[in-house]
Each structure stands twice: as structure tokens, then as C-alpha cells.
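Give me the fold.
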Amino acid sequence: MGQGVLTTGFARVQGELYCEDVPLERIARHVGTPAYVYSASTIRDRYERMDQMLAPVPHRIHYTLKANSSAGILELVRGLGAGADVVSGGELHRARRAGFAPQDIIFGGVGKTRNELAEALDAGILLINAESEAEIRDIDSLARERGIVAPVSIRVNPEITLDSPHEYIKTGGRGHKFGIPHDEALNVALAAAELPNVELVGIDMHIGSQLTRIDPYREGAERLASTIAALRDHGVSSLRYLDLGGGLGVRYDSEQPPDLARFAELVLPVVQATGLELIMEPGRFLVGNAAVLLASVLYRKRSGGKNYVVADAGMTELLRPSHYGAFHRIQSVQQQPQHAIVDVVGPVCESGDFLALDRELEDVQPGDLLAVCDVGAYGYAMASNYNSRLRPAEVLVDGDQFAVITAREQYDDLMRLEIAEPEWTRGL
């Protein structure tokens, strides 16, 4: 599909699963389980492939922090040349702490608070992707208070019907909360162009996540290009960026990865015709296939005719199977000849706490190690302390070396923000 042979950082060596040149069992012995383990080479491979694919046009790649905002991952992608795409004040803070220059940060999101908008303006970031006329007027007001002109891009909802694995990750269809409806975008953009403390610098879209077909990108780009042409007909000459968002999918099971050559063939000519610099916002595409979640088997049990593998990781470490019905391959770290049909479940007190249902898996026993695959995106980022569980460690592997980039939480971390002796204030 035009991808070539994708680099994978995980392979078996004499039956044992490795991350690059490091045995996963060695990492488990060193840091314990559960633990997220990332392959630096896989992230580099995906970034370089996207950069090469976009080479025919002026472009910027802004990594989407919501996929995985761990400092070690941010440092790696920044070193590759990526900018940052943030959707909250917390992500803006993370990006700045990770060394991203303000001019390499864009701020999106449908519900930015005035405080978050003020933080973005005070930081001097590249642009704010605004999602409503009311937000644009808030930005104008805040910029006027500061005596500056705010660079703003408008997120357009192109209202495209597309296939996606789950309704929750579609963002560019009619009636979704994101962006400005396509038929209202021109009027909102013209209003923005008239505001004294706003400079309209871009037009943006983000149509969804885990997309493997390229045609919707072409359709969306054409709709944005028509809006750009109409703005120019009205005398707007300030546009510099065309932002096509992210959403390129990865392979979890039998999906075909997106055809980057076809993306270049179908989409880049539309971008080139506008004369604008292209912005892409990959998240999952860069990190999704770059990690496994290491877990230890605690127990085997049988109930109601079903066989269970009880692991020390569950929905608190990886929410995607429970929340989205997502499929993640699971392997025994040490290859084994026998197999069984099992439910792989975690220790959380919820029936929805599972990693796989009715899955054929090696016949693992207590003490064996499992690797839950392709968890680099929306894995650790969605982990929680439900049941007062400790969030796991994160480990980055680079060749024959590995390092802990996020320490495993300790019990004191659970109560660090709680106030033992609160100061009471009367309500009247």
C-alpha cells in the first residue's frame, strides 16, 4: 500500500520477545510490571516516512500530545524536528517544559477557557486553532487587553461521512461538536479577518482518528481550498497555513496502514494549488505501534465455562479495550507451544476490566510475562488511579539501551494533593 516495509521495534530472538536489542524480560526484572515500553526506532521511522511523504510541499509536522504526552516521548519527537499540537493548558505547559519553542506550538480544542487562551497568547505560540466565532471574539478581546494581534486559524468541520472503527473518534461529520460547520465557515472567517486584534493566518480541519483511507483527506482538503479561494476573492491576504490535522491510522490487527504514496498523490496537489504551508498533526501514526504494555500473569481460573488469565494490568493501565472495544494483540514474552482460548482480565473491580475476550493465547501460567502490543497512543495518556491503583512506569528503548522516562507511582502520590486539615470558609 505504498508504505514499504515498516520498521518494527519488537521481534523474537530465539523465542524471546525483544524491544530493539533489549529482552523485554530484562526490562520487567529491572522496573517491574505493569510497564509501558517504547521503541525509539519505530517513532523515528514513522516521523521520517511522513516527512519524506510531505517533502514536495512546504510543511510543518506538529506532534499531537493527546496521543502520548510523556516527557521522554516529547523530547524524542522534538529532536526529530516536530512541533507540538496541544489541546489544553496542561499540554501547553508540558510542551514548553519539553523544550518546544513557542513558535513551534499550535493550540486546538473545542472548549478552551479564557485562562488557557490567555496562556497561549502570553506564550507567543504560532497560532490558535479556533472552533467557534465566540472563541474568536474572546481571543480578540484578550489580545486587545495585551496590545497584541493574535494569530488565529479557523477549524472547519468539512462534514464528511467516513468509516472509522468507533463513533467516538469521528470528528468531521455533520453535527459533531468540533469546528465550524462548512456552510458557516466563510462568514465566520470574514468576521475574524475584520477584528482588529486577530490575524487570520490559517484554515484547519481534523476529520477523525484511526483513518486508513486517503479519499476523505482529499475531499476535506478540497472543501478547505474552496473556502480559501472565497476568502481571497473577498480580499483576505493574510492566510499562511493549511492544516489538515492528523488521524492517519495504524495497524492493530488486520487493518491496512494508510498509503502514504496515495496521500501524496491525491492530497498534496490540492495543498500546492493553495500556495499555503501545510500543517499535519500526527499522534497515533507516530507512536501507536511503538510500544507494548508489559504485564505479569497473577492467576489462572475457570468460571462459567470460561478460562481466565488474570494479569496485573487492566483498564486502569489500558482503557481502550473496555472504552472503545479496541483490539490489541497479546503475546507471551517467552514463546510457548500450547495455546488456549481465554479472557485476559485485570484486577480492577469492574466486569468491564478486560484486555481481551475469547482470545487465542499461549497457555501462560502465573508468573509468565505478557506483552500487550501497539499501545503507544492513548495508553498511558488515558491511564487512571481508579481503585487507587498506581500508574505504571514508562521505559524508552534505544538500540541496546533502555531508561525509565516516567517513574512508577508510589502510594504517597495518590494522596499528594489531598488536604489533611482543610481550611473551612463560610458560604455567607
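Residues 128 and 203 are 11 Å apart (CA to CA).
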